[in-house]
Amino acid sequence: MSVSVEGMEDAAPPNADRELVDAVLANAPGAFERLVREFQGLCWHIINRMVRHPEDARELCQETFLRVHRQLHQYRHESALKSWIGRVAYSIALRYLEKQHIATVDIGAESGDDDLSPLDTIDDSFDLEEACADEQIHKRLHAAIQALPPVQRMLVSLYHLEEISISEIAEITGLAAGTIKSHLFRTRLQLRQVLETRLGVTA
């Protein structure tokens, strides 16, 4: 099975999820290939952002869909199929990083948002999307994102660049919404500081 790594496809709506799953489980011709086409972009984005090695990421994407094929009968439609498959990809990427003894998060951010004051959780007004519009800033920002620990790199990319909601990210990662918000808040501060230091940008 060959998994393409082209851009992210639009995920199927929930009613189509059930039809697609039923078709795959019934071994309908072309059904599993359609599932791969619809969700390969999501899997690639999650895994490649965390792993950063394209060849390893491709192998892990292959492993993701093999596991999806084996375990699809366990899917109970309690979440969107997109989130369920994303969770498989995320768990496979985490296992890879653990085997490589690579720290997945910044230790200072593992505490969640319990130590943030109400003022800290207010949007810090750093617009990541707007910053990406400037070519010079975009290059610096991309480099800064690449330097983040794997989980934070993936979270900021899913939320700000792929525009996936906090609730969807929580379903994919199993992290609490508050923990995700804390990671995003701290990461935005870190990225803003990088831009201010290297480019003299006041975000």
What does this structure look like?
Residues 4-12 and 109-125 have low confidence and may be disordered. The chain has helices spanning 14-25, 31-51, 54-71, 81-99, 128-132, 135-146, 150-161, 166-173, 177-199. The chain has 2 domains: 14-99, RNA polymerase sigma factor, region 2, helix turn helix motif (Rna Polymerase Sigma Factor, Chain: A); 107-199, Winged helix-like DNA-binding domain superfamily/Winged helix DNA-binding domain (Arc Repressor Mutant, subunit A, Orthogonal Bundle). It is elongated, with a radius of gyration of 18 Å. The chain has 9 helices and no strands. The chain has 203 residues and is mainly α. Helices cover 64% and strands 0% of the residues.
Task: Describe the global form.
Answer: elongated
N→C terminal distance: 45 Å
Strand content: under 5%
CATH class of the largest domain: Mainly Alpha
Give the H and E element order: HHHHHHHHH
Structural class: mainly alpha
Main pleated-sheet profile? none
* CATH architecture descriptor text of the largest domain: Orthogonal Bundle
Helix % is 55-70%
CATH topology of the largest domain: Arc Repressor Mutant, subunit A
Tell me briefly what this model is.
With 203 residues, the protein is mostly helical. The protein contains 9 helices and no strands.
